[in-house]
Amino acid sequence: MCRWIAYRGETIPLEHYVTAPSHSLIEQSLRALEGTVATNGDGFGLGWYGEHPEPGLYREVRPAWSDDNLRYLCRHIQSHLFFAHVRAATGTPTTRPNCHPFASGRFLFMHNGVIGSWPRNRRPIEALIPDQLYPSRIGTTDSEAVFLAIMGAGADTDPIGATVRTLARLTDIVNTGGRQPLRFTAALADGESLYAFRYAVNDNSNTLYYRAHGSSIVLASEPLDRDRAIWLPVPDNHVVISRPGREVELAPFMPERAVAAE
Predict the structure, then answer these.
(1) For residues 157 and 159, what is the distance between their CA atoms, to the nearest angstrom?
(2) Beta bridge partners of 3
(3) For the chain, which terminus, N or C, has the lower number of CB atoms within 10 Å?
(4) Which amino acids are annotated catalytic?
(5) Are 164 and 154 in contact (CB under 8 A)?
(6) Domain of 204: which CATH number?
(7) How many domains does the chain have?
C-alpha cells in the first residue's frame, strides 16, 4: 500500500517532514515498515497551499527516491498545510493523473487503501460522481473516483458528512455479491482545515499516526523518527480534525450502514 504524510500548522519548508527525518517519506518509499509492501515506487506527489485558494501540485511517475527535483522543491517550498504521498499501485497504471494527491477547486485529497474487485465495482462507484464533476475524472484509480464522489456529496459545506455518506455507499457496494475489502486511510483539506480518516470493512485498516500541539498536527502512515512514543495511533473508525485556532480533535467515525453490515 501507499505511504503519506499531511501537515497543518505554522508555515514551514516541506523538507521538515518529507525528506529530512530519519524515517522520512523518502525512506518509507524504499523501506516501509508497516505496509503490506516494503517498496512504494509507483510515483509520488506533493500538494500544498500558498497565496492562492487552490493548492499547488507536483506529481511524478518516477520513484520518490530517484527524483532530485523533489528534494529541491521540498527545501524551497514553504506552506502551512501540505500533503506528500508515495504510491504502490494496486492494478491501475503508473501515470501522473493516477498519482496522489488529487485536487478539485480548493480541496486536496490523498488515500492509502483499496476498494476490492475494483474492475467490477468501478462502474457503480463512478456513478456516485455528479455529472458536473465527472469531467474532472482524468485518471483511472479508485482513489480519485472516491474523492470526486465525496466532493459531489457536499464536501464544500460539510467535509466529514460528505465522507460519511460516501463511505456508507461504498460499504453497500463492496458488500453486494460478496464481502470485498474496503480500506480507507485518507486525508482531505480545504486550504484552512485538515481532516484525516481511518476506516475499513471486511479487512484491517491501514496504519495512521499523528503528533499534535494545539491546532497544529502532522499525520503519517508510519512514525517519521525513532521516538515512537510521541506518535499516537489513530484508532480504527476515527477522524482527526485540525482547524485554525482550535485544538486538534479525535472523534469516532463510522458510516451508519457499516454498523448494520458488521
Answers:
(1) 6
(2) 86
(3) C
(4) 2
(5) no
(6) 3.60.20.10
(7) 1
